[in-house]
Each structure stands twice: as C-alpha cells, then as structure tokens.
C-alpha cells in the first residue's frame, strides 16, 4: 500500500514543475518584446489576471489558512514574482498608440473571488484565440503556453 502523504508529495512536485513551466512559457514573447522594445499587439490582461490568481492561491496555501498546502503556496509565490516581472516589462515598453480607458466597476470590487479570477483568465485566453482566428496567425498564442495550460489543468484536477 502506498502512503497517501507520499502520493500527495509526488503529485505536488509534479504539479509544481508543470506550473513552473506554465509561468515560464511566455518567456519567448517577453524576450521578443525586449528585443523589439515594443509590446506590439500583446496585451497585459492575462498576466494581470494571473497575478491576482497567484496572489489568491498564495493566501489559500498559507499554513495558517489551509495546512499541508505548501506546494500550492510556494509555486504560486514564484509565479507571482514571475508575473510581476512580465507586467514590469509591459510598463517599460508601453504601447502608447492605443489609449486604454479605465472604468471602475463596483460589482468586481465587491464580488471578487477566485472563481471570477479564473473566469477572467479563461476570458483573456479566448480573447487571444479570437485574435488568432481573425489574423489567421498563431503568433500571439504560443504552442508552449497552450500545452502547459492543458498539462497544468490536467495535473491539478
């Protein structure tokens, strides 16, 4: 018989490795942004959603909130740091050709939840898919990102 803690630890390590790959999968995009000194048509929306998502999972994984979830807290802490770096790159190389309007929505402020963050994360991915279909180019949706998203979802389910 296999010890449940051993299984939990092995799956936690596998999940962390896949999640780390997921957080690093946009790296070629950001290398390109730095090289070109322009964000081109890339949007920061999915990275902002991921920052919020990681922050919520870090809070959930803290030992005093939910014991024995150190794997969740550590990988999402690492992901939070990586995503902050990505957003910093968007701030360093902004695209001023488009103006962005900011509208405060009180529903989002008062009813925010992990589920809503997950919804936004998926919504931004769908927005990118729309651009892929419209432009008939997968330039803005790297295969590595799609694959690691699939593996990450499969592992944590």
Explain how this protein is built.
It is built from 7 helices and no strands. With 157 residues, it is an all-alpha fold.
Write the layout of secondary structure elements.
Blueprint: H1 4-24, H2 27-36, H3 45-61, H4 70-92, H5 106-110, H6 114-135, H7 143-156
Helix pairs in contact: 1-4, 1-7, 3-4, 3-6
What is the gist of this entry?
The protein is mostly helical. The protein is built from seven helices and no strands.
Keywords:
157 residues, mainly alpha, 71% helix, 0% strand, sugar transport, repeat, transmembrane
Q: Extract low-pLDDT stretches.
A: 97-103, 106-112
Global mean pLDDT: 79
Main beta sheet? none
Structural class: mainly alpha
E-strand count: 0
Helix share bin: over 70%
Q: Ends: how far apart? A: 23 Å
Number of DSSP helical runs: 7
The number of domains = 1
- Could you give the order of the helices and strands? HHHHHHH
Shape: elongated
Q: How much is the radius of gyration in Å?
A: 17 Å
Which percent range describes the beta-strand content?
under 5%
Main location: membrane
Keywords: Membrane, Repeat, Sugar transport, Transmembrane, Transmembrane helix, Transport
Subcellular location: Endomembrane system
Family: Belongs to the SWEET sugar transporter family.
